Amino acid sequence: MGLLDVLDARLGDGLENVLCSHHARRLRRLGWGEVLDGDGAGWFTPRRTVQHGNKFEVLVDGATAFPVVAEAIENAQKYVHIANWHASPDFQLTREPGAPQLRELLSAAAERVPVRVLLWAGPPIPFFEPTRKRAAAAKKAFLECGAVRCELDARERTLHCHHEKIVIVDDVAFVGGLDMTAVEGDRHDSPEHPPRDLGWHDHIARIEGPAVAEVAAHFAARWLEIAGETLPAPEVPPEAGSSSVQLVRTIPERTYGFAPHGDFSLLDSYLRALRAARSLIYLENQFLWSPEITEVLIDKLRNPPTREFRMVLLLPQKPSNGADTTRGQLGRLIDADSGGRLVAATLVAHGDAPVYIHAKLSIVDDRWLSVGSANLNEHSLFNDTEVNVVTDDPEVARSTRLRLWAEHLDADVTGPIDDVVDKIWRPALKGPSRVMELPGVSRRAGRLQGPLRGLLVDG
């Protein structure tokens, strides 16, 4: 390592320590200090209710997920509630000829049930999408759909947003990373990832059972503050399966009256599960900036809990922003991986066309699964509003991992995890396949962008 690399590493470590100390002071002040100060581990955070008796299903990629959401809206009997980063009125949830646009789908549903849509209002200054002009135009178009209600939420923190993606229809909730829009990317991709300009890999969790009431209550709380309308207390649906489910959130302090000191249960959930890992950490995420997360990952690589422990990261080849920051953290992980336990990969379609990893899914030990809207950066863990759902159902976690790994590797992945990582993942990265080793790990000044950005805009 040259002198510039050494200086960069020391400066980067210093800035990250300052940022982590700032986060710790902030959370202590708000009554959330044990999230970062402690070493709590486990599958659920004590800060949120765990609901038992749910059915939990992970829908992979937009071409699979959106038709299921559309069908639920078409058959709505009680209400339709949507909270998105952005939703485009002309978006079609399916690519079938003559498929209705989202506004048409919601307008038809509004003829028989209440339909409410809550969108981010966009940044005050048009630095990034969706602009306030675009958000206002979407609201106007939705309101022209008869009885559809649409509100814009402008209570974002500086340079942050309302990022959650939830849909509640009657006794079913959808929580994931897919917005109903083509802004900044075409979400209509399939698990086969056929060649296209840019594939888009993502997930939505479909939930039935008592946990649906938790998602509905979260929407109702936000809706009351923005629209001024008190919704009826959500009915708790009957048990529908065997999964225990917990809704976890990021809500910055002083954003809503119902959470004046914020809600950082999503960060707590991640840190507890990663600390508890014994055999596997599998992360599919758009970003990997958070030093709080990477410190736990580095510790696992330096002090593996078992001989069989492996870590697999699936990240985009070219993130929409923060590419060097993610590469810098990845460089730290590679440096810590003296035992050859880490695989860092990205997806490509047939013909080596890129697939954009927009996913926010994590699996630990085939025992814990989290899916939702949160990226692994300071935005999602401290300053944007986010919603994930978590389950400790080993059948759901393992079957989801096997399905994803079989899709990515086009191979039998049912063997022991360490064998699959060493004998299938690693060779696949070297030859023609759907996975490719992440290129160009940055260890220079690019790594500093994340900590500097965090210090400038964090609360």
TrEMBL record:
InterPro entries: PLD-like_dom (IPR025202), PLipase_D/transphosphatidylase (IPR001736), PLipase_D_fam (IPR015679). Keywords: Hydrolase, Lipid metabolism, Repeat. CDD domains: PLDc_vPLD1_2_like_1, PLDc_vPLD1_2_like_2. Residues 158-184, 353-380 form the PLD phosphodiesterase domain. The keyword Hydrolase applies. It comes from Lentzea flava. It comes from the Bacteria. This is Phospholipase. Pfam families: PLDc_2.
